[in-house]
Fold:
Amino acid sequence: MNGEEIDAEYARKRQKWEPLVESTQIKGDSEAHPMLSPDDEFADYGTWDKADIGGIIPKTPEMLPYEYTRTALQLGLQQQARLGVNPFKMGQIGSTDSHTALSTSRDENFFGKMDTGEPRPDRYKSYVIQAFGGDEALSTFESDVLASGLAGVWARENTREAIWDAMKAREVYATTGTRITVRFFGGWDYSEAEIYRPDVVEIGYARGVPMGGDLRPAPEGAKAPVFMVGALKDAWSGNLDRIQIVKGWVDAEGERHERIYDVAVSGGREIGADGRAREAVGSTVDVENVIWTNTIGAPELRTVWTDPDFDPSVPAVYYARVLEIPTPTWQAYDEARFDMTMDVEGVPREHQERAYTSPIWYTPSE
Structure:
């Protein structure tokens, strides 16, 4: 923050004390930005990119790479090549950042960020951040906020100590408020049949690492890492649309890259040779009546996936993203309850809630 370059000492200190990053909360979603990820049709979710936190300095494109988790993970690989330490080796969580003392994160039961945003017909006009510089275009309003998010923690037991240890180990994931359950393991020899076994979690740990971990050195004959991922829907939310694996890497010239792979999709849709299912899941949302049905999507998705573009000489980072089918937003619920229309451009009436796992890192052998 003082303008000096990151050095190895700072990188080690940051890796020790900042193992997690908040990728989603009420003040917008920071997993990815559409300008940074133009090939990602799901990147523009709850994006806040008007200005800085005070509404003083307008946001400009060169600021964006340093503000989003996906790019930060790639920047960490670049810094590791330069310093020998990755300062941005972070697991992903979500939180509400609510200032009402209420823990609700559901769109149908959203109470706003502050008391000024508690349910009433005109709450969407309330300021969340009133621009200090006086330019109203740089102000942020209640209509811009998300009913997000939650932190999922894979702890060995439900104690403060075990939860702390799991967070320190980055064995955590983020959701945008829904209670999706997701597991993500990386190894070298998982098989397709194992993902459906009752002891799949034990297999995941025994022959690989969970989310938040570093891939072990490749055994003799292994050609590419293999990932096991499975997700279960929130019992009271939408079915699942798809599971994706997001890969980031740094090439021999030190340039950042990313690619998204659809690895499990619902509804019998096909994943093409480019690794993407281009057919949308569809939508059952009735915005006027604020209802939807789980007649599309799947309650559970699982798969084993091998990176088809793996280069053992290139450092890489992988995480899973799980998408629900479309469901109504809190803005749509408010309009129906109070029989009004939000006269604001760009207010979403439906969205696809999601989960982001902590990454798994691959580092080439010395």
Remarks:
- The mean pLDDT is 95.
- The chain has five helices and 18 strands.
- The chain has one domain: 8-362.
- Helices lie at 8-17, 69-83, 160-168, 200-206, 330-338.
